[in-house]
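OP here, attaching both records as promised.
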Amino acid sequence: GRGWVSWRRLGDEQFHANWDEYRQKDYLPIDQDAEVIGGQLLYSLIMVENKEGLKWISKRNLTSEQFAENFAANKDEYKPIDIDAIEVSGTMRYSIIWIENKSKQGWVELRDMTPDTYGEKFDGYRQQGYRVADLDCYTRNGQLTYAAIWEKNPPGRAWAALRQMSAQGLA
């Protein structure tokens, strides 16, 4: 019973036009991604009807410094629900979606982690009662890298996560 829209491989102007149109219709983004195809940076976006009336913020194409500034400005009132990273012409670019954290749910966000670091953080946060809410895998300087968001897991909510699988292993 919730309206939703989805687009993929949009140029910058079309992404913004769709984002703005549906923001005015009281939708909120839940996933945004970037990819480079034929040398062009393209974006995908999923938005859902904002039935809860939550305040939200979404940013894309941020440098590492801009991401850090955005993080500092929003971490007290909002929680991140989606993170995306991509290397464009040797420079990392980050996207993030924040929603109002009315319930003050505990969360942690980390980026630019090696597979070993992600594995250590995964185990540590799981033991502290957190679950992975969002995971992005990307290449940084030719190396597999992770960004993740953990949320404090409500009692009784089951979850599972797997990583570094082949396509056959995933199937």
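Record two, same layout:
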Amino acid sequence: LQKRIDEIYTDICKKNKDGELVTKQIFLKLVNIVESESGSRAVSRRAYHNEFVGEAVESNLKRFIDENLLVSNYEYSSKDKLSIGTTTKLIQNATIEIAHEILLSSWDKLKRWLEEEKEAIILKNWLVGETRRWLEVRAENKSKASEEFLKGARLDQIVEFRDKNAFEKVGGLVEQENEFIDTSVEWRDREYK
């Protein structure tokens, strides 16, 4: 498996000058770092397709899916509570995940990337979840959305990472994440005044 992914990776890098960065961004979006008794370790993470932005990213994503290294699927959700005998419109969200979790421990390049970007991965994945929660609360009750804003040291850390472009190596921020950060900063500044 490592030999096969190295061949694909080498081919991508030959065809595209940004091949290494794009591949790194794709795979680091699909990993989470979790703490256990024996220390931290990487685990596969299911990401929504809309987290992947850009023509080069889409092209490489398709290649890795076609090569069966990544899996594309759908997740269904509903805004309404499901009950027996009711018809509910389901929302279909495309997802991507690593097909073979063994890649996390066997592909040397990925292991090196994980070590280099560990803090950014943890912070970015946390931000994805917080942004999703904020968007859901805002959609249900706009006046309660301010309760979900980023605050304190965590907000400062995220702004610092964004200012240093530290999230770029893990795929960057999507529009909603930037909006969430900016709105949180504006709210903090208003509260401070």
